[in-house]
Amino acid sequence: MIIYIIIFLTLFAALIASLSQIAFKTSLGKSGLSLLMLIKKVFSDKMILLGLLGYAVSLVIYLFALDRAPLSVVYPIFASSFIFVTLFSKFLLHEKISLIRYIGISVIFLGILIVAISY
């Protein structure tokens, strides 16, 4: 029973990390900032700060899960962030996703599923 909670928490951490990526991309867009301007933006932009907060929360949840289950289980499940980011990119940022990328995401999903049920 505890492993299902760990899997859920790891998926939740991946979801938060993925939303953080969306916050970063929303803030930056295609701005082409210099390194100095980018550093300044990191400390002043609300969306980037929100993304950093999301990363911090995600890290705490991830570490909690990692403390209770093997790395060889938790880390592959955290890779679900690749799936979440791709789907959020499509539906929230309206990015085009090719068929081959959907196939790749499906392979990642199958790998995560195999790892999750193998524990």
UniProtKB/TrEMBL annotation:
Superkingdom field: Archaea
GO molecular function annotations of the record: transmembrane transporter activity
Membrane topology note: Multi-pass membrane protein
Keyword vocabulary terms for this entry: Cell inner membrane, Cell membrane, Lipid A biosynthesis, Lipid biosynthesis, Lipid metabolism, Lipopolysaccharide biosynthesis, Membrane, Transmembrane, Transmembrane helix
TM region positions: 47-66, 73-93, 99-117
Family matches, as InterPro entries: EamA_dom (IPR000620), EmrE-like (IPR037185), Small_drug/metabolite_transptr (IPR000390)
Biological process (GO), any one: lipid metabolic process
UniProt xrefs under Gene3D superfamilies: 1.10.3730.20
Cellular compartments annotated: Cell membrane
Domain EamA per the UniProt entry, residue ranges: 7-116
Record's keyword annotation contains Membrane: yes
GO cellular component: plasma membrane
Pfam families given in the database record: EamA
PANTHER family named in the record: 4-AMINO-4-DEOXY-L-ARABINOSE-PHOSPHOUNDECAPRENOL FLIPPASE SUBUNIT ARNF-RELATED, SMR FAMILY PROTON-DEPENDENT DRUG EFFLUX TRANSPORTER SUGE
Protein name: SMR2 family DMT superfamily transporter
Organism for this UniProt entry: Candidatus Mancarchaeum acidiphilum
Taxonomic lineage of the native organism: Archaea, Candidatus Micrarchaeota, Candidatus Mancarchaeum
